[in-house]
Structures
1.
Amino acid sequence: MNIILIGAQGSGKGTQAEKLAQVLGVLHVASGDLFRSAIAQGTELGMKAKIYIDRGDLVPDDITVAMVLSRLQEPDCARGVLLDGFPRTLEQAKALDRGLQEADRFIDTAVYLEVPREILLKRLSGRYICRANQHIYNINTRPPKVPGICDLDGSELYQRSDDQGEAVQKRLDIFFNGTFKLLDYYRDEGKLATVNGNQDVEKVHKDLVKAITDRL
Ligand code: AMP
C-alpha cells in the first residue's frame, strides 16, 4: 500500500502521518525530515538543500526526487509507504509514478487534508518541534508538559527557521499556488480523497483511515 498525504504546512499532516502509518502498517517517509536529517549530518545534499529551505523555497525537483526515490528503494519501504511532503510539484508526481512503476508498484490513494489558510497561519506561528525526533507541539493548542522540553524524549524544542516571519507566508503561497495542481493530477487519475483537517485530531484520524480503507 502506497499512500500520499497532501496538506499545507500546519495542516496537521505530520502528526496525522505518524499515527496513520502505524495503523496501516507502512513506513512514514517525510521529505522534510529527510532533508533536516541530511542537514544535521552535514552531508553535501543537506548543505545544498539548506539554502532553499532557509528561504522558504522548494528544493529543486532533481535533488528532491533523487533523494526520495533512493529512500523508497530501501528494504524497509517494501511493505508500503505513507509519503508526507512529497510529491509537491507535478514533475515530482510524474517522476514518482515512473520510479514506482519500475519496481512494479503504484500509488493507491492521495489524500488531501484540507484546512483554511487563516487557520494554518495561526497554527504555524505556535509550532515547535523537538531536536531528537521531530515530535510536534504547539504552544497554543498542544503545549508540552514542561515548557521547551519534549514530553516523549526530553530533548529541546525549537521553532523551525521556515516557520518564522515571511518564510511562513511564502510557503503557504507556494502551496496554494503550486501544490494545488497536484490535486488535479490525482483527481484525474481517480485517486484523490479529501478529508476536512479543521476538526479535532482524533476525528481527522478516523476520517483519514476511512478515506483510505474505503478505496482499497
Ligand atoms: P516540510 O517539513 O515538509 O515542511 O519541508 C520543509 C522544507 O523542505 C520545505 O519548505 C522545502 O524547502 C523542503 N522540501 C520538503 N519536501 C520537498 C519537496 N517535495 N519538494 C521540494 N522541497 C521540499
2.
Amino acid sequence: MKEIVLNTNTQKSVIYCGSGAFEKYAHIDGGVFVVTDDNVYSLYRGLIEKTFNGAAVKVIRAGEKSKNIKTLTAILQSMVNAGLKRSGTVVALGGGVVGDIAGLAASLYMRGVHLVQIPTTLLSQVDSSVGGKTAVDFNKVKNLVGSFYQPEKVIVDPLFLKTLPDREINCGLGEIIKYGALDKGIYQKLQSADDLNNPEFLEDITADCIQHKAHVVTVDEHDLNGARKTLNLGHTTGHAFELYYGKKSHGEFVLIGTYYELYIAKKLGLCEDGYADSIINLITSVIGAIPVYGDVRKAAQFAVYDKKNNDDKISVIAPKCEGESVEIKLTVKDYLDLIAECNGVLKEKYENS
Ligand code: GLY
C-alpha cells in the first residue's frame, strides 16, 4: 500500500492507495455522515453499515443528473436532520458525482466539516477524488458552482473495482492515458504493459497517477499558474463532444478529445508523428476506432464555454513529447476548422478502408 501526502496551504491530505486501504483506514471517530449513491449502496450496504456503524447515510440517485443544487440542498437538509456537528466527518463513498457533491456539501455545512473521500470508480480514484475540486452543475454548465475543499483522507482501494462494469474501467483508463501523456514514467509503464486491465497493473498505475496529480495540486491548488491546467489535456474537445453527443463515458470522450487535439498539435508542428502515433495506439487499444461524427462543428462550438479559455481564444492542452504537454491557443474559427478537418480525414480513412 502507498501513502501519498498532498500538502496545501489549507490542509494536509493523506491518500492511502492500494489493497486493504479501506479496511485499515475507513474507521472514523466522531459523528460520521456518509453520502453514497443507489448503485454503490445496493452493492456495499453491508460493508457501509459494518464500517460506519450507526452513521447517517444519505443515498442519492446515481448519475450526472444528480449533480445539481436540488440534490445538494437535500444532502444539507439530511445533515441537519442527522444532527451532524462541526466536528463531524462527511464520507463521500462513490464515484465522481458523489465525491463532487458531497465534497461541496462538506465545504458549506457549518462553513466546513471534515471530509474523507472514498472513491469507488477507477475514474474517481485516479483523478476526481484527489485535489479538492468540488462542484455541482448549474444553468446547464458542468461544475459551474463549487469550491476548493481538500479532503483530510482519500482512501483508494481496488476492492471497489471488482464490481465495476468494463465500460467504467475504460472510462478510468481514459484519464490514466491522459496522465501517460503528461508523465514520462506513466507513459513508459503504459507502453510496456501487456494488459491495461490487469488488476495489479491498475493498482500500481493508479498510485502513479495520484502521485502526479498530488504534485501538480501542491504547486497550483487553485488552478492559477498553469500547472493544474495541464490535467485538462484532451478535455477541451472531450468535454465539448461529451456535452453535445452524450452517450459515451467521460473517459472515452477524453480519449477522443486527445485524438483530435493531437491532430491539431501535429498539424501545427508541435508534436512528432512517432510520439503522436504511440499515444493514438494507446487510445485505440481502449476505445477501438475513433468515431466519425456528423455535426462536428456544432459539437466543437461547445468548447467556447471551456473554463481554460482566455482572450476569446480556445485553449487546448495537447501532448508534445514524452512527459510534456503544450497549451495551444486558437481562434474559434481556426479551432473549428481543424476539428472539422480531422473529422474529414477520419471519414475519408473509413470510406477507403
Ligand atoms: N480534474 C482536473 C483537476 O482536478 O484539476
3.
Amino acid sequence: MDTECETDHTLTVGSGVPMSAYTATDAPNAAALAETAQAMTAPGSGILAADESNATMNSRLAKVGLDGTPEVRMAYRQTLLETPDLGDYISGVILFDETIRQTATTGTSFIQLVKDARIIPGIKVDTGAKPLSNSHHEKVTEGLDGLADRLKEYADMGARFAKWRAVINIGDGLPSAKALHVNAHALARYAALCQAAGIVPIVEPEVLMTGDHGIERAEEVTTAALRAVFDELAKQDVLFEGMVLKPNMVVPGDTAPDQASVEQVAGATLRVLYRTVPAAVAGIAFLSGGQSDDAATDHLQAMNAGRTHPWSLTFSYGRALIASALETWRGDAANAAAAQAVLHERAKANAAASAGRYKKESVPA
Ligand code: 13P
C-alpha cells in the first residue's frame, strides 16, 4: 500500500493531526461551556476578581494598616460578597483557593454566599508567575502539574470557571519570543484541561503597564502576545466558544511622558482585538492592571458606546473595583456598609460601561 500517497492527501486541522482525530467541537461539555462563558460576559454585568494570592492580599492589607491573617482576609472578602444587590452587576466572582474553602461567620460557605448572590463562582488555579530560566527578568506562570485533579476538586465544590494569569513585561529587548511562547503554551494547556473538566477557562495574558514605553509599543507587544496565545489555543483544540479572554487594555507605560486620551486607548485596544481574537470567542473581560477606577470605566465605555462587536467587551477587574472599598473598610465592621456602597457604585458604573450606557453623572455617589 502506498501510505505516503495516502498521507499526502489527508486533510489536517488545528494541531496538524488528521481530521478524524480530536477537534475543538468534540469537547464533551461544549454547549454547557458556551452557555457559562456567555453568562459570565453578558453585557450589563462583569466579573469581580477577588482572587489575590495571600502574598498580594497581605500587601494590600498592609497598606491600610492591617495584618494579613486568614481571618482578616476572610472578613474582607465576606464584606465584599455581602454587598447588597451585587448580583445585579456582577456575573462571576474569582476566588482564591483559601477563600473557596472558607465558611463565612454566618455559617454559610463562600461558594454558597456567591451562589446566593446569583453570581457564578470561579477559582484562580495558576500557582503564580515564577522566574523564567535562561532569560533576563521574565516570568512563566506555573501550576500545570496536578491541575486535572485540582480542577475536578474545584468543579465538585461548585466552581464553574477558572483563571490563569500570564505576565509579559515590556522593557529593553523585552518581551522575548521565548517568554511569549512558553506563557502562551501554558495558557493553552490550562485552557484545554479546564474544558475537559467542564470548567470555562479565563485566559489572561497580561502585558504589564509598568515602564516608560509609549502606547505604540504596548499595541505592538499586546498584538504579539495575543497572536501567540490564539496560535497555541488553536493548536491545542481549545473551544473558543467556551472560553473567556482577559486581556490588558492598550495603554502607555505608567511612567511614559506621553499619556493617551480615552479615545486613543479605546482605538488601539479595539484594533488589537480585531486583528487577533477570533469572532467565535464567547467574550472578552478586561483586567484593570493599575489604571485608575475612572480610567478603567471610561475606557470600557468608549469601546462599547454606540458599537457592537463580535464579542461582548466587559470587565474582570480587581483593583479598579475593590481598591477603594478596601480603603473605606480598613478592617472595621462599622465601615462595612460604606465599603459595600463603594463597591456597589464601581460595579454599577462598569456594568453600565459594558453595555455602552455609562454616564458619569448617572451613578450616585
Ligand atoms: P486588576 O484588575 O487589579 O489588574 O486584577 C485583575 C486580575 O484578576 C489580575 O489577575
